[in-house]
Design a protein that fits this description.
The complex is a heterodimer of chains A (about 110) and B (about 110).
Chain A: E1 4-7, E2 10-14, E3 19-25, E4 32-38, E5 44-51, E6 56-59, E7 62-67, E8 72-77, E9 86-94, E10 101-104, E11 108-113
Parallel strand pairs in A: 2-11
Antiparallel strand pairs in A: 1-3, 3-8, 4-5, 4-9, 6-7, 7-8, 9-10, 9-11
Chain B: E1 4-7, E2 10-13, E3 19-25, E4 31-38, E5 42-51, E6 54-57, E7 64-66, E8 76-78, E9 87-94, E10 103-104, E11 108-112
Parallel strand pairs in B: 2-11
Antiparallel strand pairs in B: 1-3, 3-8, 4-5, 4-9, 5-6, 7-8, 9-10, 9-11
Classes of the chains: A mainly beta (about 110), B mainly beta (about 110).
Chain lengths: ~110, ~110
């Protein structure tokens, strides 16, 4: 069974710092990986999706990398801002024979101090 | 741009009551799914659908029922609510099963007393 782990569980940094969030998965036979953002009391927003053939994806100040062979992904946030404060989750597809769904990590709760 | 719309936002039920959580998307997505989110457990898949008339079970389907009569709508029914079903429920959709980004609704916070 696929398991997804995110480290650290919580992170608090001053505004302006660059930071890295980590995600690891046990089964490397994935065909993509998504990073999501969740604000308190809200739904999830997909930030980046990396296909298995890609090594990284970039969107603005966000850069996600994928190393399938080692079962790892990182989300790099440049020049952090208070508005980046949220919980960040990574997820990979799993299939029990059909399309099934995503297996999620428990998330990293990020606080950016003004 | 409505995206994925869930209703209600909050609901309180008594044990044994039934109810339906509504989910609608206006993006013509074939794939729709329901997750529950619990502290310490993360998000877990309840049911999913790859198109109208097609549904299947996810990781935690017991106590829930779904149907998909149209592309737009994917309601989740609680047949006889139990306190263990107290959770936040999210509906999500995608244009290509799990090959594209998943779009989430804003969630329904359900308490079963």
């Amino acid at each position: 069974k696929q398991e997804v782990t995110q480290i650290p569980a919580a992170l608090s940094v001053p505004e302006g710092e660059n930071l890295v969030l980590n995600c690891s998965f046990t089964d490397s036979a994935i065909y993509n990986l998504q990073w999501f953002r969740q604000d308190p009391g809200k739904g999830l927003t997909s930030l980046l999706l990396i296909q298995s053939s890609q090594r990284e994806q970039t969107s603005g100040r966000l850069n996600a990398s994928l190393d399938k062979s080692s079962g790892r992904s990182t989300l790099y946030i440049a020049a952090s801002q208070p508005g980046d404060s949220a919980t960040y989750l990574c997820a990979v597809p799993y299939s029990g024979g059909g399309a099934d769904g995503l297996t999620f990590g428990k998330g990293t709760h990020l606080i950016i101090q003004p | 741009n409505a995206g994925v719309t869930q209703t209600p936002k909050f609901q309180v039920l008594k044990t044994g009551q039934s109810m339906t959580l509504q989910c609608a998307q206006d993006m013509n997505h074939e794939y729709m799914s329901w997750y529950r989110q619990d502290p310490g457990m993360g998000l877990r898949l309840i049911h999913y659908s790859v198109g109208a008339g097609i549904t299947d079970q996810g990781e935690v389907p017991n106590g829930y029922n779904v149907s998909r009569s149209t592309t737009e709508d994917f309601p989740l029914r609680l047949l006889s609510a139990a306190p263990s079903q107290t959770s936040v429920y999210f509906c999500a959709s995608s244009s290509q099963a799990l090959g594209e980004k998943l779009f989430f609704g804003s969630g329904t916070q359900l308490s079963v007393l």
